[in-house]
Structures are given as structure tokens and as C-alpha cells.
């Protein structure tokens, strides 16, 4: 991040604001008088968490996490306290779980599942079929349809069986469509045709009939060509009794591109198909440096997307794509952007955190 005088001053202000917010949280006064009445004095009872507040609406509030961060005890404390749903950010992906063909390694995912269980948290498992983060053995050669079908089925069923009974849901297929609503030309699509999606859902269902099965993607928060493609596919899959339970809207938002104002309508149309929806990878990035104005706008967006989920009965919960700017994927992928999460790099809650609490209250 470029360190300009303005950037440094803004960061100092933000750090002070964050420190004050932390003190308020520690003192149990974070949520204002209404919250205090419920939460009591700090020494008597821990304050309510995002998970507690979400549960009052029959929803969950989750965070992604990743294995390297788990040695940071200040980080894992809030991860364990504040959320009731956890998504492994990388540990259950194909490159991690089947690094050599037919040789499975569930170490990374197991570590996160173990930690989550110790904190009575559920798992949104992520992800079985994705064009990205595939192992070299799979991408380095061509496959016949029969070969790839067998590889895919074995991967899905071995992994889903391993986690059977331990996960709430699976992102079975991730990011299957292009922005214009055409199928993404992945190795799976090109080799197997669009039927790979229904097959993947059926194989996953066979391996764990109780896990909720999702299709998951980004830029499908608003009504538009890409979410229309999901709507059409979901309708068709439901008509054919393919085991699909929900659509995951990743919700990687950016202040400079505008809020998806049709989010609620979009969630509602999937509900009407008899599907759950979830906001699965929420972050709201901004051009750095973060200013008070941008953080206030970001807070409004977090409030609005939380409201949208609460207003649609089958929107089952919200997951942030990690909870602190310290471990956000954004700065590495979008240079010059960041500050996307509800907690800052010092693990202090930001205005967005308080806005989520307001919406959940
Ligand atoms: O494992 C290597 C490590 O050995 C190496 O030293 C290090 C050096 O760069 O890289 C490590 O791999 C990184 C990997 O995360 C694990 O930390 C990759 O470089 C990095 O590109 C990868 O990024 C992940 C990204 O998916 C890949 O597309 C992010 O952490 C992860 O948060 C992100 O998650 C995705 C969701 O799965 C799907 N939706 C979009 C979302 C954000 O991109």
C-alpha cells in the first residue's frame, strides 16, 4: 500500500476510532442502550455476538478462515466467539485435498472442522468443482469424457464422504457462468458439457444425503444476465428433481461499482423456486486509503445486505470472506484496494461491524 501523508493520517484516525470501538465492545456498550439492557454488565455476561443476534432471526452469521491464520490466537478468539458458521477459504479445494490423483489429504480441512466443532460452529464446505486452484495433474493433460467423469465422481464422493455428517452444506459447483450468462469454458464444461453440474449434485447427494447442496458464484447479487442464468438453471434442475438446495451469492462488492439494489428481489425469486439462498463470501472493498466517508458508506452497504437477507425468508445466513482486514484476500488480488471487512487490521471492529449489529437487532 502506498504510504502517503494523507494515508498515514487517515490510518491514524482509523486506528484511534478502532481502538475506541474495541474499548466500547470490551465494556459491553457497543450496541447502545438497547443492547446494554439485554447484555448486562461486561463482567456478568458476555455481550451478544453476531451469531447470537442472527440466531434470533433463524439465521447464521459466519466467517471464512484459512489454516495459516490459526496460529494467531487473538484472531482465533474472535473467530471462535463471534460466528456460528465457518468456511475454509482454501483447505477443502481440489489442489489441497487431492494433490496427486487418487491420493487424498484432508489435513487442512480437518483442522478447520475440528476448530469449528470445538466452538459449536457449523461448516459451509467449499468447494468441490471449480476451475481455479486445481492440482497440476488434472490441468496438465487432456481427458476423455469418460476419464474425467470418473475423476470428478471419485473426487466429489471421496471428499463428501470424508466430511459426511460434519458439514452443513457444500458449494458443489463454484463459478460456473460467465458475466453474460453463458457457461464458463472450464475443463469440466468443455469435456463433459453442461450436464456435469447435475451429475456433480447427484454424486454429492449420494455421498452425504443430508448436506445442503449449493451452486455458488460472484456478481450474481443483482438481477442481470449472470443471475438470470442461475435462475434458469436452478429452475430446470428443480424440475428434473436434481438435488439442489441453494444458491450462494458470494457478494464480493466494491464501493466504486455501486450497490446491487435488486439483491432482495433476486433472493426472493430463488426462494420462490423452493431454494435457500445465502450470502457466502461477503466483503465490501474500497479504493485505499480508507476514509471516514468510505467506511460509513461501507457500513451502510453491510447494513443493507444484512437487511436484504433478513427480509427474505429463505435467505439462511451471511458469511464474510474472513472477518478482519488483516487476512483479507483483496489487497493481493486488487492492488490499491482493501479495507473490505468489518474488523480492521488490528482486529478492531469498524463501523461496518456496528451496522451489521444494528441490522440484526
Ligand atoms: O499455498 C501457496 C503457498 O505455498 C505459497 O507460499 C503462497 C505464496 O503466494 O501462495 C499460496 O497459495 C495461495 C492460496 O490462496 C493459499 O493461501 C495463492 O497464491 C492465492 O492465490 C490463493 O488465493 C485464494 C483465492 O481464492 C484463489 O483464487 C484466496 O486465499 C481465497 O480466499 C480465494 O477464495 C475465493 C473463493 O474460493 C471463491 N470465490 C472467490 C474467492 C476470492 O478469490
Automatic annotation (TrEMBL):
Residues 47-359 form the GH10 domain. SMART domains: Glyco_10 (SM00633). The keyword Signal applies. The keyword Hydrolase applies. Residues 1-27 form the signal peptide. Belongs to the glycosyl hydrolase 10 (cellulase F) family. Transmembrane segments: none annotated. SUPFAM superfamilies: (Trans)glycosidases. It catalyses: Endohydrolysis of (1->4)-beta-D-xylosidic linkages in xylans. InterPro entries: GH (IPR017853), GH10 (IPR044846), GH10_dom (IPR001000). It is an enzyme of class 3 (hydrolase). This is Beta-xylanase. Pfam families: Glyco_hydro_10. Its EC number is 3.2.1.8. Keywords: Carbohydrate metabolism, Glycosidase, Hydrolase, Polysaccharide degradation, Signal, Xylan degradation.
Amino acid at each position: 500500500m502506498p504510504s502517503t501523508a494523507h494515508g498515514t493520517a487517515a490510518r491514524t484516525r482509523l486506528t484511534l476510532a478502532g481502538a475506541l470501538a474495541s474499548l466500547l465492545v470490551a465494556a459491553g456498550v457497543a450496541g447502545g442502550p438497547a443492547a446494554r439492557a439485554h447484555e448486562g454488565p461486561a463482567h456478568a455476561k458476555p455481550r451478544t455476538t453476531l451469531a447470537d443476534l442472527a440466531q434470533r432471526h433463524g439465521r447464521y452469521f459466519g466467517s471464512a478462515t484459512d489454516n495459516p491464520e490459526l496460529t494467531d490466537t487473538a484472531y482465533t478468539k474472535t473467530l471462535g466467539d463471534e460466528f456460528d458458521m465457518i468456511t475454509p477459504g482454501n483447505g477443502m479445494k481440489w489442489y489441497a485435498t487431492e494433490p496427486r490423483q487418487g491420493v487424498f489429504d484432508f489435513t487442512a480441512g480437518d483442522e478447520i472442522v475440528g476448530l469449528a466443532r470445538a466452538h459449536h460452529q457449523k461448516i459451509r464446505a467449499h468447494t468441490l468443482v471449480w476451475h481455479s486452484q486445481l492440482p497440476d495433474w488434472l490441468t496438465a493433460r487432456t481427458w476423455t469424457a469418460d476419464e474425467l467423469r470418473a475423476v470428478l465422481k471419485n473426487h466429489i464422493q471421496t471428499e463428501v464422504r470424508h466430511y459426511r455428517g460434519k458439514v452443513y452444506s457444500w458449494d458443489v459447483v463454484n463459478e460456473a457462468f460467465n458475466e453474460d450468462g453463458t457457461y464458463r469454458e472450464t475443463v469440466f464444461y468443455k469435456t463433459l458439457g453442461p450436464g456435469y453440474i447435475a451429475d456433480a449434485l447427484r454424486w454429492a447427494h449420494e455421498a452425504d444425503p443430508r448436506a445442503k447442496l449449493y451452486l455458488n458464484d460472484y456478481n450474481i447479487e443483482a438481477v442481470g444476465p449472470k443471475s438470470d442464468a442461475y435462475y434458469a438453471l436452478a429452475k430446470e434442475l428443480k424440475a428434473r428433481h436434481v438435488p439442489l438446495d441453494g444458491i450462494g451469492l458470494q457478494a464480493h462488492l466494491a464501493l466504486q461499482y455501486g450497490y446491487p439494489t435488486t439483491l432482495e428481489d433476486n433472493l426472493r425469486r430463488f426462494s420462490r423456486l423452493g431454494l435457500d439462498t445465502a450470502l457466502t463470501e461477503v466483503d465490501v472493498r474500497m479504493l485505499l486509503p480508507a476514509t471516514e466517508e468510505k467506511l460509513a458508506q461501507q457500513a451502510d452497504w453491510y447494513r443493507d445486505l444484512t437487511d436484504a437477507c433478513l427480509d427474505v425468508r429463505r435467505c439462511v445466513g451471511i458469511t464474510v470472506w474472513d472477518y478482519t482486514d488483516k487476512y483479507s484476500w483483496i489487497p493481493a488480488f486488487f492492488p490499491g484496494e482493501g479495507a473490505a471487512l468489518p474488523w480492521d487490521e488490528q482486529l478492531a471492529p469498524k463501523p461496518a461491524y456496528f451496522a451489521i449489529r444494528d441490522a440484526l437487532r
